[in-house]
Amino acid sequence: MRNPFRYFKTSPEIIRLTVMMYVRFPLSLRRVEDLLHERGIDISYETVRVWWNRFGPMFANEIKRKRSASMHGLTQWRWHLDEVFVRINGETHYLWRAVDHEGEVLEVFVTNRRDRKAASRFLKKAMKSHGSPRVVVTDRLRSYRVALREIGNEARQETGRWLNNRAENSHQPFRRQERAMTKFRKAKSLQLSLPYMLQFTTTSTNNAIFTAAKISSSIAPLL
To answer: Residues 140-173, buried b or exposed e (16+ Cβ, 10 A)?
Structure first.
């Protein structure tokens, strides 16, 4: 696997510490620069910005994978699946979302249809990254049941009027961002931007980034 830190002179531990400080605490870029300078680490605030933009998503994905692996063994491990429509260049598309029992967004996917094939593609993508759930909670869309049968997944499916509120509530931050932004023009550009948008709609994902740096034993001498 290619080392993401190979072209950086600064050690990975310091990069993780810097990203942790910027994400975890209400600090500006310049304040992070000052705190690191007091510890003998001489970097500029623009370097903090570059590290956050480049490594923040990577650290978040690492924590998500580890979290999914640990959660998968729990008896309450279940997915809440839901889909909402979104306008892209005046045409209706569908944003599919998988949320676990604690409200953490596991996967998002954009399709131009809301049928069996779209549900199957979405489930395969989610299961490739997070494994197979024990229970899936969905709305009354029949495509989920057919897609699960085709994939060969034996998860128990639950449907109900109020059971899927967790997934439906997870759409609300995205809707607020959608209203604040200009209308989407291409489905591909929306799909590529979703992971970055979700960093700011999920509290546990942001907290996970600083947790990864905090538990690293190599950071302790710097604190």
So the answer is: ebebbbebbeeeeeebeeeeeeeebebbeebbee
Strand partners for 155: none
- Compute the distance between CA of residue 84 and CA of residue 93 in angstroms, rounded to an integer: 8
Report how many domains make up the chain: 2
Using the 8-state DSSP alphabet, how is residue 155 labeled? P
Q: Spell out the residues 6+ positions from residue 32 whose beta carbon is closer than 8 angstroms to its own.
A: 18, 21, 22, 45, 48
Q: What is the CATH number of the domain that holds 107?
A: 3.30.420.10
For residues 164 and 137, the answer to whether their CB atoms sit within 8 Å is yes
Residue recorded with tokens 């510890």: 39
Q: 145 is written with which tokens? A: 């049941």
Can you state the angle between helices 12-24 and 45-71, rounded to 10 degrees? Answer: 90
pTM for the predicted model, two decimal places: 0.59
DSSP 182: P
Asked if 222 and 18 touch (Cβ cutoff 8 Å), the reply is no
- Structural domain harbouring 58: 12-71+206-222
pLDDT tens track for 126-168? 888 788 888 888 888 889 889 988 888 878 888 876 676 666 6
Tokens of 76: 């309450």
83 Rama class: left (phi>0) / alpha (psi -120 to 50) / beta: beta
**Helix-helix angle 203-214:45-71, to 10 degrees:** 100
